[in-house]
Amino acid sequence: MIDHSHFFDDRAAEWDKDPKKIERAQHTAQLILDTVAPNGEAEVFEFGAGTGLVSQFLSPHVGALTLADNSEGMRDVIAQKIEAGVLPEATLSDSDLVQGKLPDQKYDLVVASLVLHHVADVPALLKTFASILEPRGAACIIELDDAGGKFHAHIEHYDGHDGFKREKFEKSLLEAGFAQVEFHDAGEIEREDGSFSLFLANAITSENH
Which listed residue, 45, 48, 116, 144, has the most CB atoms within 10 A of its CB? Predict the structure, then answer.
């Protein structure tokens, strides 16, 4: 993983004070619920969970939640939310899917919201997502459409991805072992320098996965 954790450490305490982030997380969770329709017992793993906002909105509609993030600041906020009961049925995981430190169980849903553009080897991570999913499990990935370098232009020496082309992303998911992929428009990030569209990719494993 490209180490942007310090960037997020510095912002973790203030993260949930941005109403746009809360609104986006709520919209993301609702879109996942509408398109995947998990049952109330679904086991969920959120990769790069940040402060756990998406999981917060998923929580009333699924089963146990496992959250992982490599930013200590974000992990501290998640731990506080679990202790306060804001994230009931949630566990903070030490798993590191990029470094090969995998959880010891499989999940019905893997969620990754605006995190893959920070990952150097995306195809390898997609294979790992597939490997920790149950048969007919879903990886729900929210990402930026290819922004042609504009989205991160304000960050000096940015070394991640500036969004993804859907066709190429779908190919990577199928090559990673998923049986089918569905794309949904997931709104936009509005900034002073423009609007940046998002997608939700739901990648489903096969029945004999």
Answer: 45
